[in-house]
Amino acid sequence: MRAYLSRWVCRDAESNLARLRAEGESAGRQADLVVFPESFLHGYTRRLEPARARAVFAELSAHHPEVLYVFGSLSEDGRNRMTVWCGGRQVAAYDKVHLFAPNGERELWQPGDRYAAVRWKGITVGLVNCNDLRFPEQCRTLKRRAGCSVFVVAAWWPWRRDHVWRTLLRARAIENAAWTLGCCVAASDDPGEPFAGAGNYVFDPHGEAVRTADDTSYRLDLDGVPPPLVDPVADARDIAEVELTTA
Fold first, then answer.
1. Per the structure, how many domains does the chain have?
2. Sequential DSSP letters for 173-240
3. What is the pLDDT of residue 45?
4. What's the whole-model pTM score?
5. Is 57 a member of any domain?
């Protein structure tokens, strides 16, 4: 599978929409899965009518009907919302569950109340948004209950904590024996919201990094990776009781 992870620089909304059309078209010609990062069209502080973005999402996915587009994310209905499109229509949506309090996200949005995944071309893709990555139960639930073999993580994660971002992506890959794709905003050059973002990364089910020459184009050999030593589903045990003693 060919995956394209955008290295997005967030500017004003009009510039962002124009670039989305151009980059989305180019990516759709070269990849099977195309991913854009969290809040890439408006950041935290700019405003964009969701209907305008959705019109471009529909247009791009209609032009490339075999491609799965993950647009992560829009500020819509009081939620931080990832949307997934194929063939000109939205096929899945996910509202970020674990809002990041240090950035004031709890004042901007309401948390989602469910996890989400989409089945596509014989694989199941789990949706994860930035700070969600810190909570291993989300990916574990997506793996065990939905059978996800791929996680797509969209993020607005700072470069100064790139080591945390990279480590958590690798951990989610290893503990769930799943391909894990992290697409982070590269930067924001808006004067009111300057930002330097973390890198893009792809890890295979063993936690090995998938190398790329351009940080955007990746090839995933979905059938060529040997099975894990420990099966995260078959070998899992549900233990609810915790024994706590005092010494």
1. 1
2. HHHHT-EEEEEE--EE--TTS-EEB---EEE-TTSPBPP-SSSSEEE--TTTSPPPSS-TTTT-----
3. 86
4. 0.97
5. yes
